[in-house]
């Protein structure tokens, strides 16, 4: 085991991340074998199934990247799902009801997510409210604003073949999963910001020991707020990829996606205690969550089974993180 961990390739990629990649392969094999047995006539091994799972992984992945920055500072954000829906609802309503140009509507989606990021960051960093309380309040505000703005109506973005359908190429173009390429590119940028810049190092240090960082003369408020702003921006991007995959958005929803985004982070190696985060792990975690969702549906079970499985995975991952920290201490 030590020889494997000391291997150069393993050190570069990370042993835990390689294990997660192995989990993806095992899950795929497991669902491929069990689906025809449990759901007669159904199959899991198909290009359509892979594309469907990836569609789900994109917006979960972008939210997971955003939440990673917040958790790195020792905070939490339970508003990402409803904020994503509010961004998609408001920008989509502007497109379909007020005929605002599509590029402007995509920008509106980013701005709505950014606005909530600023709101959360301000109250957590400058007003010293607990991130749990702040994000819960933002969650309710986002659900309310989305419903009020659209008058509780669902919004359907332009489908394939329409003049304004080019935004869907962000998700898939000529059967090429462009969404996965863009997710990986954004993940690389996030990894550079978090691990190679002053801002990212301060965020991680704040998560490890905020008071020590403050006493050393660092403006912790600014960097802590920046983590929430980045999260909000990535949630706005997630909204664009959600409508690119599914087109229709209903008001008052999004709560369950909070747990899945956080589960992807925790599975990927981000510590809930702060100070330790993995961008690549968050992307892999999002793919695992999406694969579980697609596999459970393929076997003929309801989505409720995924909620149970996701909850168990979060408990296991957090428990493993706590035990690991105790051993190091």
Task: Describe the fold and architecture.
- With 329 residues, this protein is an all-alpha fold.
- The chain is globular, with a radius of gyration of 20 Å.
- It has one domain (48-321): ABC transporter involved in vitamin B12 uptake, BtuC.
- The two termini are 22 Å apart.
- The longest helix is centred in the C-terminal third of the chain and has 27 residues, at 220-246.
- It has a two-stranded antiparallel sheet.
- The chain contains 13 helices and two strands, in the order αααααααβαααβααα.
Number of helical elements: 13
> What coarse outline follows from CA principal-axis ratios?
globular
What is the percentage of strand-forming residues? under 5%
Strands of the biggest beta sheet: in what spatial order? 1-2
**Corresponding CATH architecture:** Orthogonal Bundle
- Radius of gyration from the alpha-carbon trace, in angstroms: 20 Å
Question: What is the topological layout?
Answer:
Elements: H1 2-5, H2 8-13, H3 15-38, H4 47-72, H5 80-96, H6 102-126, H7 131-149, E1 155-156, H8 178-196, H9 198-215, H10 220-246, E2 248-249, H11 255-267, H12 279-298, H13 304-328
Antiparallel strand pairs: 1-2
Helix pairs in contact: 3-12, 4-8, 4-9, 4-10, 4-11, 4-12, 5-6, 5-7, 5-10, 6-7, 6-10, 8-9, 9-10, 11-12, 11-13
